[in-house]
């Protein structure tokens, strides 16, 4: 390994490397497990999606797609990271507290872990290795 990489992994850049990892891993899981299946199987999802806020299944599915596809991509890029986590957190909270309120911790562990990952990103931001950081650095 190069000295620069080692410094990133164990030096002062380590928290930023951790935020990069959390952004990429969390966004990839959200997109792969939830967003893409909804996008690719729109009609099937529309017939089966819960509508806990009584917005209509179509609106509910569009909101879920916005959070799980658009926001996931923004988070992975580190663009508007804190803002992009808010729809994801809202969606996950509604899902875990309202839709799947009867689930045990074990049954809902994936959702709770995603809440932890995206909650951390909402608090900490995208870190130095994000487009947010590049936009702030420019005059």
Shape designation = elongated
Biggest beta sheet attributes: none
Instruction: Please state the CA-atom Rg, rounded to the nearest Å.
Output: 17 Å
Mean pLDDT: 92
SSE topology string: HHHHHHH
Helix content: over 70%
Oligomer: single chain
How many structural domains does the protein architecture include?
1
Count the DSSP helices: 7
Distance between the termini: 34 Å
Strand percentage: under 5%
Main location: membrane
Organism: Pseudoduganella lurida
Keywords: Cell membrane, Membrane, Transmembrane, Transmembrane helix
Family: Belongs to the DoxX family.
Summarize the structure.
By secondary structure, the chain is an all-alpha fold. The chain has one domain (18-137).
Fold and architecture overview:
The protein is mainly α and 139 residues long. The chain has one domain (18-137). The chain contains seven helices and no strands. The chain has helices at residues 3-10, 14-40, 42-48, 57-77, 81-99, 109-124, 131-137. α2 (14-40) packs across α6 and α4 (57-77) packs across α5 (81-99). The longest helix is centred in the N-terminal third of the chain and has 27 residues, at 14-40. It is elongated and about 55 Å long. It starts with a helix and ends with a helix. The model has no long low-confidence stretch (mean pLDDT 92). It is found in: Cell membrane. It is a multi-pass membrane protein. Belongs to the DoxX family.
